[in-house]
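ok trying this again, last paste got cut off
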Amino acid sequence: MVKWTIDFGAHNREGFEIAKPEETRRRWRLRWPRLIFIIVFIAVIVPGLMLAWDYHRLKTELDTVKQSYHAKNLLALGNEVPKISGTLGNVHTALWMLGWVQVVPGIGGYYHNGMTILTAAHDYLYALSKGIEPLVSVGQTSHPSSQKWDQAVTQAGLNLKTMTPVILHANQAIQAITPSSIPAVLTKKGLDVQALKSVSQTFISMLPLMTGPHPVLAQLLGFPTTARYLLIFQNSGELRSTGGFMTAYAYVPFHNGRLEKISSQNIQQLDSQVTYHPPAPTVIGAYLPVKYWHLRDTNTSPDVPQTVKNFQMLYRTIPGVLPTNGMIFIDTWFVDDLIGDVGGLNVPAGHGKTVHITKSNANLEMEYLAEDRGLPANVRKLFIGTMMKELLHEVLHAHVSEILKVAATVENNLNNKQILLYFNNSQAEAFAASHHWAGIVPKTVKGNYVQVVDENLLGHKDNYYVRESYQVNVQQVNHRNLETVTIHWVDPAIVNWAQNLFVPYHSWVRVYAPMGSTFVSMTGIDSYAQVTANTTLNKKVFGGHVDLPGRFSAAQPPTTGTVTVKFWLPNKVNVRRLYLQKQPGMLAEPVKVTVHGVTHRITLYNNQWLTF
C-alpha cells in the first residue's frame, strides 16, 4: 500500500498561505531597489526637475521685470508680479519636498532661513499682485478714461487693505531672519539681509499711503493726473540751512505709474527767468555782494516748508513755469552713496573727455571740473545736471542686488536728513513729517530744544572737510536755568586759491532755542550778535558771523574755531527732556549735553530726544 503525502504549506487561521522566511527575503531583495528608486525619485529627482524648470521660468520673468523697470513702466512691471509669485510658490513646494536635507549637519539653519525668505517674498508679491490687479487691468485697455483710472485706484487701495495682514506677516518673518544663516547662493547673488530688513520695514511704514478707498501713493505716482516734482540738488560742500547750496534742479514727472522723461539744468538757468526781485534778507545781503534775493539763495531757513514757501514766491513769477506737486531736496552725500551703489559713473565732460566718478572722488572731481576755466561755461554749468542724468540711468538699469542697495540707501538718507521731502498733498506731507523726512522745525516740543545751523555764504566748498561738534550745558543759577551752547570747528583743508575751492572758513552760525529765551552773550564771532524772535517757527535765534584762520601748508595744524552762546531758558521749559535737531547736509555731529551735572555724549545722525 502506497502512502500519498500532500504538503499544503503553512496556513494561518483564515486559511491563507504563509510565505516561508527565505521566500520573504527574496521578495524584499527584489522590491528594495524599487523602493529606493521611488524614494529618490520623489525626494530628489522630482523636486530637482521642478527647481530646474522654475529657475528657468523665474529667470525669464525677472528679465521681463528688468525690462519694465528699465522702461520706468510700473504698470508693466506690475503685470509680472503675479507670475513671479506663482513661480515662487512652485519653488517653495519643490524645496518643501527637499525638507529632508535639514537632517544634514550644518544645513538646517540655511534651509530654514532660505525657506523663510522664499515664503515672505511669495506672500509679499501675492499681496501686491492682488492690490495692483485693478490698475494693471485698466492699463491694458486702450485710452482709459480718468474715471476708470480713479475707480481702479480706489479698488486697488481696498484690495491692498484686505491683503495687509499677509504683508505684515511676511515682514515679521523677514525681521526674524538670521543673517549668518543665509544660503551662500543667495549672498553671492547680492542679498543683503540688513538692507532687506530695512526696506521691508520702510514698506510697512508706507502702507497707510497705499491702502483705503483713496490711496495717497497712487496720487503721488500720477494716477489719474500727472504728478510733477521739482528735484533740487544741494551741494553740501557749501553748507546751507537745508543741506547745501542749491546748484541744480530737475523735473521728475509721473503719469499713471510711469516715470516720464526727466529734464535737468543748472539752477542759475532757472534763476535768470525770475521776474520778482525782493530785497535780500539780512543773512544774505550782509555777507554776499547781491542787491536782491536769488532763487538759489532761498533756503535760508532750516524749516523746509518755509524754504519751499520762499522758493515758490520767486519760482511762480517765471513766465510759463511748470506747476509742481512737491519738492525733493537731495544733498552731496546722498549722491555719493548712490554712485557707490552702482559702482561708479563715466560722465561726458566736453572736448571728448570722459570723467570717471566714484564715491570717494565724486565731490572734488565735480568741483575741479566746475572750476576748470579751459571748458566752456555752458559745459561747466551743465556738468552736475549731466552727472545726475547718468546716475539716474545707472540706477534704473541696476542689477537686482544693486536695486536693493539703492533702496536701503534711500531709506538711510531719508532718516539722516540727506533727503528732504515736501508734498502739496497734505496727507503725504503729514506722513513725511511723522517719519522726520520733511525737515520741519517743530513749533512746540515737550521740553528743551536746540538746533545749530551753519550757513557757508562765500561760495567755497570748505564743508567737505570742516567738522563741527558742539556742547550744551544747562546749569541752575538762582533757581533759573542758564544754557550755554559751545560750537567747535576743525578745518584740516589747505587753502587753495588757485582753484578757488578751499579758503579760510567763513560761516553765519545760528542757535535755535525755545521762544522766550533771554540772550546773555555770544563770543567767538567777528561782529555783534543778532538776536531775533522767529514767530513763524516759535523759536528764539542767536546768530553771528565766524571766521576761522587759514591753513596754508601741511606743516600747520588744522585750524580751529569756537563760538559760545549763553542764554536764560524760560521757567516753563522742562530741561530734563531735550530735543536735538540735526542740520541737514551734516554727515554727523558729535554732541555733549550736560543738564544739572548729568552728561550724555552722542553722535547726531538724525533728530534725537535725550532724557535726564
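PB: full thing came through this time. The radius of gyration is 32 Å.
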